[in-house]
Structure formats: structure tokens, C-alpha cells
Design a protein that fits this description.
Blueprint lengths: L2 H21 L5 H21 L7 H24 L10 H28 L7 E3 L7 E6 L19 E6 L23 E3 L4 E7 L18 E7 L2 E8 L11 E2 L4 E4 L11 E7 L10 E3 L1 E3 L9 E2 L4 E2 L1
Parallel strand pairs: 1-12
Antiparallel strand pairs: 2-3, 2-13, 3-10, 4-9, 5-6, 5-8, 6-7, 7-10, 10-11, 13-14
Helix pairs in contact: 1-2, 1-3, 2-3, 2-4
Length: 312
């Protein structure tokens, strides 16, 4: 998503919805309730789908409590207006208002249910271990729904995960879109083999892109593919000169295979990981995506992990 879209989703839209709910004058509880439900399901959609690492993950944690407080204040205002005269309401206008808002609630509920379904691991998921262990990591894309995982539109990458690391402020980097690679918290972190198996591909020698540039020819950049759990697991966009394994080499869980970089079709340092099965052996993006779970967790957008102790 673009910076503008992120800014609107995380700050603009919630602010508009909450300020309107706070300032609106309600004469009936049912009118208040309908607005509270509508704002709630819209904020839940934002809560699930926005990339909160761009500004701060902590904003996500504040969103629902602030919503609850604003809804309560709006409700208390109804009580204070009980003794005030109420202007007559046009019944046709009221029915149209309730109908439109009721329809919007229904649409938002459907989308939220789709997000929740996309957060459940499909059948046949293979078990992997966390490939990163040096801090608090954030999943920017993951799950089985396109709203929370852009890779879901491409069959070989159906269940891919894109991972960044958060700093103390809950951001992925020191500013919104820095060009310096070292400004990204994850840059240079060690990548560990997520399973025991044999290295099928180990490719190095591609330069790290200066954000937001991408290499549209060598899509995976410096990468490693490990055959394990009946599938081929790709770990992509590693740092130039960091790949430490060779094709045919056996690796075990936790073996260091490289470092996080920004090579290939990547606009910022991160780890891309996906598993696929079928197609030609040793050829990436030539099979069907396989669901993966990490330490028994199906990671989706906005999931956190530390590599040791699970966290949500």
C-alpha cells in the first residue's frame, strides 16, 4: 500500500469516524446504537487490515479502547438530553438513514468475517520454526485473504509471509520511508533455517536495493530454497554476500543461512518466506502454495513473534 493509503487508513479514517461519533447529537438510543455498531465494524476492518508498522504498532493497541471511550461519552450525552424537547423527525428520512447505515454494517461485517476466515490456517499446513530470533518481528503480509496478504493473488505464493522487525517505538524504521538500509530495524538480522532438510537453491551476488527501488529481473534476489516437510521453502531478499549455504547441503532447524537484506523485487528490507509444492523441482514460483505454521501458529498481517516466546 502507498504511504497515502496507510496514512488515511490508520489516522484519517479512524479520526473522522471517532470525531463524528463524539460530536453527533443523539435523541434516541437506537440511533446511537446503529452508529456505534457501524463505526465499530469499520474500525475492526482497519484494525485487521492496516499495516501498523509504518507509523506505530502501538496505535493499533489504542484504537479499540479509544473507540469504547468515545461510544460511552456519546451514550452519556443521550441521558443528559432526556428533558430537552426533541424536534419532529421525518419518518421517510429516518427509514432511509437506518436502511443505508444498516446496509453498510452488513457489508462491513461480511468483510470482517472474510478477514477472520483468512486468519485461520487451511488444512495441510506444514510446520516450521521461526526464521528470525533477534527482536520483535511483525508480519506485514500473511494469511489466506488478499486484504491481509497481497501474495494471495498468486498461486505459488498463496500463503507467503513478509516479515519486518519493530523498534522500541513500534515502527519498522527510523522514519516513514528512509533510503538508508541501516535505518530499517531488520536489516542485517540473521536468518535461520526454519526446518531440517536439504538446500536446493542458494543464490547470492545481487546488490541490495536503495529504497524504494526494486530489481524487477531477479525477483527473489539473494535467496535460499530448502526442501523439507514435503515442500520447498523459499527465504528471499537476503543481504548481498551473506548467504552461508550451498546447494546439496543438509541443514537443521536453527542453522544460520544468511542475513536480511533488500535484494530482488523488494522496496524495503524484509524477509519473504513461502512454501510451494509441485511444478519443476528447484524452480521458484512454479508450484502451488502450501500453508505454513510457525511453532504451531498461522501468522497473518499484524501478528508478532519474538522467535522464542509467542506473542499476539
Amino acid at each position: 500500500m502507498s504511504l497515502f493509503v496507510q496514512l488515511f487508513l490508520q489516522l484519517g479514517l479512524p479520526a473522522i469516524l471517532l470525531i463524528d461519533l463524539f460530536k453527533r447529537e443523539y435523541s434516541q438510543r437506537r440511533e446511537w446504537l446503529l452508529d456505534v455498531v457501524l463505526v465499530g465494524v469499520l474500525l475492526l476492518f482497519v484494525f485487521q487490515t492496516a499495516r501498523w508498522d509504518w507509523f506505530s504498532y502501538y496505535l493499533r493497541l489504542l484504537l479499540l479502547p479509544v473507540y469504547g471511550l468515545v461510544a460511552y461519552v456519546a451514550y452519556r450525552c443521550i441521558d443528559r438530553k432526556k428533558e430537552q424537547p426533541v424536534e419532529p423527525v421525518n419518518p421517510v428520512k429516518e427509514y432511509i438513514n437506518f436502511g443505508v447505515k444498516g446496509f453498510l454494517v452488513l457489508v462491513a461485517v461480511v468483510f470482517n468475517l472474510a478477514m477472520l476466515r483468512g486468519s485461520i490456517a487451511p488444512d495441510g499446513a506444514i510446520e516450521l520454526s521461526y526464521p528470525l530470533r533477534e527482536g520483535i518481528y511483525y508480519v506485514g503480509g500473511g494469511g489466506s485473504n488478499r486484504w491481509i496478504n497481497g501474495h494471495n493473488a498468486y498461486p505459488p505464493q498463496d500463503y507467503a509471509v513478509d516479515i519486518v522487525r519493530l523498534n522500541a517505538f513500534g515502527n519498522r524504521a527510523r522514519s516513514l520511508n528512509p533510503e538508508e538500509l541501516n535505518a530499517y530495524t531488520i536489516f542485517g538480522d540473521r536468518v535461520y533455517a526454519p526446518c531440517t532438510g536439504q538446500v536446493v537453491i542458494a543464490e547470492d551476488g545481487h546488490v541490495d536495493n536503495i529504497p524504494p527501488a526494486r530489481d524487477t529481473t531477479n525477483l527473489a534476489g539473494n535467496h535460499v530454497v530448502i526442501a523439507c516437510e514435503g515442500a520447498e521453502v523459499l527465504l528471499a531478499h537476503m543481504k548481498e554476500g551473506s548467504v552461508k549455504v550451498e546447494p546439496g547441503q543438509d541443514v537443521t532447524v536453527g542453522f544460520v543461512i544468511g542475513q536480511i537484506g533488500n535484494s530482488g523485487h523488494s522496496s524495503q528490507p524484509h524477509l519473504h518466506l513461502h512454501a510451494e509444492r509441485g511444478g519443476e523441482a528447484g524452480v521458484i514460483l512454479d508450484g502451488e502454495g502450501v500453508p505454513v505454521r510457525f511453532n504451531k501458529r498461522f501468522l497473518v498481517r499484524n501478528s508478532l513473534f519474538s522467535g522464542r516466546a509467542p506473542s499476539n
